[in-house]
Amino acid sequence: MGQEKTVKGQSMLNGALILVMATLIVKVIGAIYKIPLTALIGEVGRGYFSSAYEIYTPIYAISMAGLPVAVSKMVSESVTLGNYRDARMIFRVAKRLFLLVGIVGTLLLILIAFPYVKLGQCEDNLWSILMISPSIFFCCMMSTYRGYYEGLRNMTPTAISQVIEALGKLILGLAFAKITMSYGLNRFNSGETVFGKACATQEEALSAIYPYAAAAAVLSITIGTIAALGFMVLRKKIAGDTITRTMLVNSPRPQSSNDIAKALITIAIPMVISALITNITNLIDNFTIRTRLASAVAENIDYFKSAFAASLQGSGTLDKDIGTYLYGCYFSALDFKNLVTSITMSLGVSAIPALAAARALKNKQEVTSTINSVIRICMLVAAPAGLGIAALAEPIMTLLYGGTTAENLIPISSPIVMIYGIGTFVMALSTPLTNVLQAMGRADIPAKVVALGAIIKVICNFIFVGIPELNIYGATIGTLVCYTVIVTLNLYFTMKVSKCKINFVSTFGKPAISAIVCALSAYATHAVFSNILTFGDASSRLNGANISTLLGVGVAVVVYAVMLLIVKGISKDDLLMLPKGKKIAKALEKYDLIG
């Protein structure tokens, strides 16, 4: 019976790697999806598609906040203490709670959709919003399963469901959009009405089709969530949860469903408040950036026309649209801001059950080791990626946008990418530290810290974006100041709550030194080879400049790996969490290359 006592799960790093792989696959699928979708439904159709997300995202975030983390934390604690009946009861109670939350979230979005499109004078957006509304319900139900398996320290179901969701969006979204566009154009070519409208020209026909084509593409998101939920349900029915009948028989009687529901809600409420603050702040953030930028442009129009002359003339931007154009350039750089943070978020998700288990056993050494590993691994990933992006900001933007109609944004967007690259390590630590505090039972702290950060961000926007010489770049200053305050306070409270000491040399110093050398090697490699490889013109993707950028990235990766070994930036504990980690650790230990 000795082997029946515990549920074997993945190590924190192993689980994080599984989620990171899924995140990268989802990112690639998303990138593949955007290009043909825009070709199918045009910029106008993409506008309808994106507008649905603007109202969907806040409600989705609030609906999903808290409960998955609460489920993961409570399940991990229960199985660690051998309370397997509690774990099963938590899952059943969570399903009922998420059923209610999902229904309310979906109905709320549907109810808000009608006044939203009326007030915004964008009635054509209604269909897209209605098509995406049910996905809130299915995502909520799916998160019950995700939180449960994550609590059992099995990240594989979550990872597979994420990929299924993304593939559904890619395959069905493009298919539905293509079918809708073809149907509408065939109706027009046959002299019939297009979705109830009589159209004299093809331009009018396309204008009538775009809202429905966008809605058809958005419907694929809902179907993708249904498919992902179906996978989770079938997976649990077929493969189970590794909790055996013997474990259940020998487990104490579970808590009542009411007590478990209260515990889940108590843990979730601070996270919901935090999500609410974050989403309200994002709305205010966007509003203050736009308004302060518009004010700065209106009062200093000659300065802006002179400072951004080449980009404004090249893009054919009118004077009245300068503020909007600069905001669009800023928005194009945000993908780089979120790229690394979306990867380190996986580490935070994987850390919750690991820390909850260590805390349940009152294993202070394991708590300290896990927290140090979370922060160190975040730094090992974020520092080189961020500084590498900063060093090659303009070449990377040229690789992506050079030779396209959007290439005029490169001179404006590149400095934004560079600033965010430098601050990536701070932004990347934000969510994992929040998860650590949540796992330690202090979800209230991140909520208060986020509120303070939000106030600081809005104040910074108002001050810095309104300065003509800073303009849109002032928004990046506000973001970095906000994240610096949040991370500093969360790090302080993490050490205070857990009573653990952070080894600042191995956690921050060694990755930082290696990352700086990595970034310098990337910059130098690009500079050298861009002078040697001069073939091809700017309109071609296969030219010397782009090859030089890719070579710079490749050399930087090798240099970073070598530097980590030289400064002993990787610890034995980190390696032991990896598959085949013992063999890797033994080999590196032989040559004294690990800390």
Characteristic terms for this protein:
mainly alpha; 595 residues; single chain; globular
The value of Rg in angstroms is 25 Å
Order of helices and strands: HHHHHHHHHHHHHHHHHHHHHH
Indicate the mean pLDDT.
Answer: 84
Termini Cα gap: 38 Å
How would you sum up the major sheet?
A: none
Please provide a written account of the structure:
The chain is built from 22 helices and no strands. The protein is mainly α. The model has no long low-confidence stretch (mean pLDDT about 85).
Outline of this structure?
The protein is mainly alpha-helical and 595 residues long. The protein contains 22 helices and no strands.
Please specify the SSE layout and strand pairing.
Blueprint lengths: L11 H53 L2 H14 L3 H36 L6 H7 L1 H18 L4 H34 L12 H38 L5 H5 L7 H43 L1 H7 L1 H7 L6 H39 L3 H28 L1 H9 L8 H13 L1 H16 L4 H22 L7 H26 L5 H29 L11 H23 L5 H5 L4 H10 L5
